[in-house]
Design brief:
Layout lengths: L18 H4 L6 H6 L4 E7 L11 E4 L2 E5 H14 L5 E7 L6 H15 L19 H7 L3 E5 L1 H4 L1 E3 L2 E3 L1 H8 L1 E3 L3 E5 L5 H15 L6 E5 L9 H6 L1 H11 L1
Parallel strand pairs: 1-4, 4-5, 5-8, 9-10
Antiparallel strand pairs: 1-2, 2-3, 6-7
């Protein structure tokens, strides 16, 4: 399954300090989906002083990107026009602390946006990876599974404790241990190949989980100035002076 790492990091400004190491793609989430990506890795953060989902945003470390609801709508729009496609969407609450109200609103947003198209309690019935077929997916008319990490799926609000089971049952957002994921973090093609082979050898016998082996190289900035400023700005300056 083709996928992308920090999928919406393209929305981080090229002018942001350290954007050179924060930008993982140069095309939008929609364009990635159009080109065949079916696994998306969205990092989300917020403002602990806010209760509004509109104040949640994409992030990569401390770098901030686009509005989280805008990116979710981008995914929704793709599925609306391509209802026979299937997407694995992983939402990772990383840095930029959210309030419990924001966490709840973000989960409600995911549930209401994808509605009947998201795999809900299906994981306890027919959605079994060891014998799941594309025909079953098409017949069910489900076209997305949403996975969340521990931090996203565990919080307390107004005396109610939310955990992995509650979040899966109420919002159709499942714990991300449903998938084994490996980022190889190398700029060397041979190392990337060997690391992928090793990962698959260790995990390929586990048929009850998605396997996401990220077959992409990670560029390494050649110097501190590139990391501080971002490639786009530096290259723009070079071009203007040539």
């Amino acid at each position: 399954m083709p996928g992308s790492h920090d999928s919406a990091s393209v929305t981080i400004s090229n002018w942001a300090p350290f954007s050179a190491v924060g930008l993982c793609q140069n095309v939008s989430v929609n364009e990635q989906l159009q080109r065949g990506a079916r696994y998306l890795d969205l990092r989300v953060g917020g403002n602990k002083k806010s209760t509004l989902v509109d104040d949640t945003f994409i992030c990569h470390g401390f770098l901030k990107g686009a509005s989280f609801p805008d990116i979710i709508e981008e995914v929704h729009k793709f599925l609306r026009y391509n209802p026979r496609e299937f997407i694995v969407l992983e939402v990772i609450y990383q840095k930029h602390e959210m309030s419990p109200e924001q966490q709840l609103c973000a989960l409600q947003l995911l549930s209401s946006t994808f509605d009947q198209k998201v795999t809900h309690d299906d994981l306890n019935s027919w959605f079994k990876l060891n014998d799941l077929t594309l025909g079953q997916l098409k017949k069910s008319e489900k076209n997305i599974i949403v996975l969340v990490n521990d931090r996203m799926g565990q919080f307390s609000l107004n005396g109610t404790q939310y955990g992995s089971d509650t979040v899966a049952r109420e919002f159709g957002c499942h714990h991300h241990n449903f998938m084994k994921n490996k980022w190889h973090n190398t700029a060397n093609a041979q190392t990337l190949l060997e690391s992928n082979e090793s990962f698959l050898e260790r995990t390929c016998n586990n048929c009850d989980k998605f396997l996401n082996s990220q077959f992409v190289m990670t560029p390494q900035p050649p110097g501190v100035s590139f990391a501080l400023m971002g490639f786009a700005i530096i290259l723009r300056n070079i071009s203007s002076n040539s």
